Amino acid sequence: MKNNIILLTSEHLGSGEEELGRSLLENYFTLLKQEDDKPAAIFTINKGVYTLTDRHFASLHLKEMEENGVPILGCKTCIDYYQLSNELVVGEVSSMKAFIDLSKEYSVITL
Predict the structure, then answer these.
(1) Which of 36, 46, 59, 109 is deepest in the core (most CB within 10 A)?
(2) Matching SUPFAM superfamilies, A to Z (predicted)?
């Protein structure tokens, strides 16, 4: 995973029932944070930025990953669009340019 970045595009994993998808995403990050080999970064866009707030349980797992050295980044345009800048509990506000630069250096896994 260390040669990859995760692009998180939604607040749930997969399509179908959103409640199930939110649970699946939380489970994904629960398991990922336990791995020795962690991604180089996690970049959130669109509704994925909600995972950076306390509205989503995944924020707890992302916070642990951040504390263990994984950069957690949120698209500024998306954070502004959803008016979440005052609700962020994890990660840092970043730019699409930063994502482009990361994607030149690492493979991208899109969730």
Answers:
(1) 59
(2) DsrEFH-like (SSF75169)
The pLDDT of residue 76 is 97
pLDDT given at position 26: 93
CATH of residue 75's domain is 3.40.1260.10
Residues of the chain with pLDDT under 50: none
What does pTM read for this prediction? 0.94
DSSP conformational letter for 69: T
Q: What per-residue confidence (pLDDT) applies to 1?
A: 79
CB 11 within 8 A of CB 56: yes
Rounding to the nearest 10 degrees, give the CA dihedral for residues 55, 82, 93, 108: 80
Q: What is the dihedral of CA 103, 69, 66, 41, to 10 degrees?
A: 10
